[in-house]
Amino acid sequence: MSVVEAMRQVLQDFLTPDLREARAHRDSVEKRFDILEKGYDVRYQALVQRLDSIENANAVRYQAIIQRLEQIQQSFAFDKRIYDLEAEKTRSA
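The chain above was modelled as a monomer; its predicted structure follows.
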């Protein structure tokens, strides 16, 4: 056995178990990250759904406010027309 082959064998004997352990550890870490990622995906989707429901509720409230403001505006316009008619009536009398 040559020196190169002997060195190769020594490196394989000592490094191979460490490399296998490192790969196993890496796989374990990757599995934990996958589990965490799935958990965060679920939380993210729940948050998006919650924000969508809040947005929809606010849209409904916004439309109700707009309708009420339009009613108030029409009421003011009607009041102004009555005021103008009364002013015209007093001027002509």
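Residues 3-92 form the longest helix (90 residues).
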